[in-house]
Amino acid sequence: MAAPARALLSDLPKGHEFPPATLTLTPEAVLRYLDAVEDGNAIYLERGLAPPLCAAASALGALLELLELPAGTLHTGQEVDVRGGVQIGAQLTLTGRIAQRSERAGMVICALEFALTPAGSRAPALAGRTTVLAPAGVAT
Amino acid sequence: MTAPVVKQLSPAQVRRYADASGDHNPIHVDEEFARGTPFGGTIAHGMLVLASISELMAATCGEAWLTGGRLRVRFRAPCRTSDAITASAQPQTDRDGMRVYAVEVRNQEGELLISGTAEAPAGG
Lengths: 140, 124
Known about the structure:
The complex is a heterodimer. Helices cover 21% and strands 41% of the residues of chain A. By secondary structure, chain A is an alpha+beta fold. Chain A has one domain (7-135): Hotdog Thioesterase (Thiol Ester Dehydrase, Chain A). A 5-stranded antiparallel sheet of chain A has the order 2-5-6-7-4. A two-stranded parallel sheet of chain A has the order 1-3. Chain A is globular and about 50 Å long. By secondary structure, chain B is α+β, with helices and mostly antiparallel strands. Chain B has a domain at 44-121: Roll (Thiol Ester Dehydrase, Chain A), CATH 3.10.129.10. Chain B has 5 helices and 5 strands, in the order E-H-H-H-H-H-E-E-E-E. Chain B has helices spanning 11-21, 26-29, 31-35, 46-61, 63-68, and strands spanning 5-8, 70-75, 84-91, 98-106, 112-121. A 5-stranded antiparallel sheet of chain B has the order 1-3-4-5-2. In chain B, a hairpin with a 5-residue loop joins strand 4 (98-106) and strand 5. Strand 4 of chain A pairs antiparallel with strand 2 of chain B, so a sheet runs across the interface.
């Protein structure tokens, strides 16, 4: 059976919620990230805490698996709030929603909010808001 | 003022970041595709460039950044995959128990790529 078509980000309405997903930032994934960004600080592995942007990028990566970004989409803003920190190796629940959507002059401004919550907790360890500018009605 | 973080990006590093993040958008990794876009060539992931600010904050604030950091930025201009970038942070007035920094990333020509604020719990 063919995989279901992914939703086009610019077509999703404000308030749209993505189905919760589970993800784990494994030590290997964190090491791959640190190698890619060339951050040699030992503090992450010493304290067992993921770099905040590693956690945020992983959350965005998981959400992008559910989304198509129109060709020409620009990442225009990023917010990250760490609320206790993301433990390396911990199982996390990812939630996300379209928090803002407005359209002007053929462009859609879309804000995607996400949170990573450790299993067994109700309080997110990290939350973020990503703002993108995407052409309206354009496929990838 | 904290010591800036200086990085020389490369297309190979951008490909490594694409693999690590799962974001293989051709604007970042496909030079032929990117040449046909308004950018005229590949650009680095915004989150890769932004990582230089997080690296700087982790070096400056330590665990407080990893457990209570806040970042709010705007991407002002695209970063080429071979740009040299400099991330810097200027301390501002503390607010609500948070140490506040004005942060930015510029390229080798001094062009502003990212600007915003970063905060970490004071005394952390």
